[in-house]
């Protein structure tokens, strides 16, 4: 066991980690936008739209993320839409994360009892005020743990982008391994880096959760 | 270059047995380990609780791809011996399954009220009997929906074995795609087969959950 040969690749590792973070954050933001739009559509009155969103959710949740990335990267070019590796992975991961987000956000909205909305209306609040002050805060609190754990799964899932040669962390691992032949050390270090990033996010989310959702719970 | 034919169709379906084999192996070794982790997590001994929690945390914070590469490429070099590919992959999937199922089952065990243990103790049951006859059946019912949900994750996760050269469903799709230069049909078929495997489980998990909600 000798970790020293890896030391000179620290710049590549840091660059790879940055690409991984970019891929995660971009996919998460795009996925959340899809999630909010999808949840609104699911709550809406347009039946065909509801069916389309349901179909989208089931399709993307019941097929492997790896195959989705391959389809965006290898199949879309046959229709004339050629995306570079990073962009293709970002599109596929956004759609994957979006499918989970719709369900999480919808569940968060559904967790607010109807009676609370009615109580708000009785107080003379407008539709927007009811949403902003009565539905949104507890819905966010209820959805928060699921969103954050899904975010961490997304972070780990970005490693699949290495399979279309997006130059993120896991791809860097393959590069260093091919140079040093130190498979054990390389993958131990890479796993440790992912672990450190994932734990940092978990700690960050825990702190944000404590700060943002301080109001008391009623039982 | 040749066109997509019936042979390719057959090769996708025969590759399916490796997908199934990997899932079965992961469950066969992962489930008992998961039960051990879950029981350790609710143990009276703080040291055991912390160790199990740390173990689960580590595995859940590392990509599945990282686990696979570590045990497939890294471990044999470290041990200095030949490790059969299937063994390396099985170890990785076993740990993955154990960590996630262990955490799900711990949730189920903890959801059963403390008073249920006490009631068992009052009836003169031993700790094992309380677990076996009172707690476990209730916990099983509670954790069945997320367990089935994880099964879907596991089936999808076996697609990563394709990267190590296992000719399971995803890899068979790649091979056919490369041979025919027509990526659309093979990948669409592969996705459709995964979908056909996973959707019934997803729907089952959801109906189990709905039924749970109604009772009690």
What do you see in this structure?
- The complex is a heterodimer of chains A (219) and B (216).
- Chain A is an all-alpha fold.
- Chain A contains eight helices and no strands.
- Chain A is flat.
- The N and C termini of chain A lie far apart (54 Å).
- In chain A, 38% of the residues are buried.
- The mean pLDDT of chain A is 93.
- In chain B, helix 3 crosses helix 4 (85-111).
- Helix content of chain B is 82%, strand content 0%.
- The model of chain B has no long low-confidence stretch (mean pLDDT 91).
- At the A-B interface, helix 2, helix 3, helix 6, helix 7 and helix 8 of A face helix 3, helix 6, helix 7 and helix 8 of B.
Task: Characterize this entry briefly.
Chain A is mainly α and 219 residues long. Chain A has helices at 10-43, 47-61, 65-75, 85-110, 114-122, 127-157, 169-180, 183-212.
List the defining traits of the structure above.
heterodimer; A: about 220 residues; mainly alpha; 8 helices; flat; B: about 220 residues
**What is the CA-CA span between the terminal residues of chain B?**
62 Å
Instruction: Using the alpha-carbon principal axes, give the shape of chain B.
Output: flat
* Oligomeric nature of the chains: heterodimer
Compute the average pLDDT of chain B: 91
* Nearest-integer average pLDDT of chain A: 93
Q: Provide the succession of SSEs of chain B.
A: HHHHHHHH
- Provide the low-confidence segments of chain B as ranges: none
| Secondary-structure element pattern of chain A, one letter each | HHHHHHHH
* Strand fraction of chain B: under 5%
How is the main sheet of chain B built? none
Rg from alpha-carbon coordinates of chain A = 21 Å
Q: Which pair of chains forms the biggest interface, and how many residues does each contribute?
A: A-B, 40 and 40 residues
Gyration radius from CA atoms of chain B, angstroms: 21 Å
């Amino acid at each position: 066991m000798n970790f020293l040969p890896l030391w000179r690749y620290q710049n590549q590792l840091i660059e790879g980690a940055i690409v991984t973070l970019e891929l995660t954050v971009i996919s998460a933001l795009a996925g959340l936008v899809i999630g909010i739009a999808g949840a609104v559509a699911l709550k809406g009155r347009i039946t065909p739209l509801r069916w389309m969103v349901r179909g989208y959710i089931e399709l993307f949740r019941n097929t492997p993320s790896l195959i989705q990335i391959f389809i965006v990267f290898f199949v879309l070019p046959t229709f004339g839409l050629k995306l570079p590796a990073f962009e293709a992975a970002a599109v596929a991961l956004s759609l994957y994360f979006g499918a989970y987000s719709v369900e999480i956000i919808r569940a968060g909205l559904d967790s607010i009892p109807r009676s609370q909305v009615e109580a708000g209306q009785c107080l003379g609040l407008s539709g927007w005020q009811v949403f902003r002050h009565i539905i949104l805060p507890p819905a966010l609190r209820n959805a928060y743990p699921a969103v954050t754990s899904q975010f961490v799964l997304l972070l780990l899932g970005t490693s699949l982008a290495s399979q279309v040669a997006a130059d993120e962390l896991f791809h860097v691992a393959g590069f260093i391994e091919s140079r040093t032949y130190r498979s054990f050390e390389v993958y131990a270090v890479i796993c440790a880096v992912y672990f450190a990033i994932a734990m940092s996010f978990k700690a960050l989310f825990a702190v944000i959760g404590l700060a943002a959702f301080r109001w008391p719970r009623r039982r | 270059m040749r066109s997509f034919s019936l042979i390719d169709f057959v090769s996708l379906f025969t590759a399916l047995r490796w997908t199934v084999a990997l899932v079965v192996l992961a469950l066969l070794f992962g489930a008992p380990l998961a039960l051990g982790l879950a029981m350790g997590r609710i143990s009276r001994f703080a040291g055991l609780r912390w160790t199990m929690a740390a173990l689960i945390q580590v595995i859940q914070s590392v990509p599945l791809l990282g686990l696979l590469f570590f045990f497939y490429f890294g471990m044999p070099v470290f041990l200095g011996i030949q490790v059969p590919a299937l063994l390396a992959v099985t170890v990785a999937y076993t740990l993955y399954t154990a960590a996630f199922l262990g955490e799900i089952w711990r949730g189920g065990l903890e959801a059963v009220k403390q008073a249920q243990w006490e009631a068992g103790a009052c009836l003169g049951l031993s700790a094992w009997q309380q677990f076996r006859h009172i707690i476990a059946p209730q916990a099983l019912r509670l954790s069945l929906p997320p367990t089935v949900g994880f099964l879907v994750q596991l089936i999808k996760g076996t697609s990563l074995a394709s990267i190590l050269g296992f000719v399971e469903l995803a890899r068979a799709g790649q091979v056919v795609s490369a041979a025919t230069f027509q990526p659309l049909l093979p990948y669409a078929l592969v996705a459709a087969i995964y979908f056909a495997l996973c959707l019934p489980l997803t729907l089952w998990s959801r109906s189990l959950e709905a039924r749970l909600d109604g009772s009690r």
